[in-house]
Design a protein that fits this description.
about 110 residues, three-stranded antiparallel β-sheet
Length: about 110
Amino acid sequence: RHLSPPSTVISGGVGVSPSLAQRVEYAPGAMDKKHYHPAHLFTYVLEGSATWEVEGQPPIILKAGDIFYDPTRRPHIHGNASQTERAKLIVFMVAEKGQPRGVPIQK
């Protein structure tokens, strides 16, 4: 599993959607289950490496310093690409007020 310390909500001005910044840490080999975000998602890899697999596309391996943008509502899985080292990410979401952070996809 991954560890998700408290999130920070970043309020915007008039006409700007609410935003959320969150530090996420994955244990070696940890992967999330398939889901989507009703938000625009920007991910920055702080340490280690992460894997990101959008439904119907080959996996992408992200390394420390990489930034990844995921448009709203794309089914995907993601997690730690390493079986031996932790992965640390910063995730920034821009969503409409009242939307959940993530929506699980049942198989």
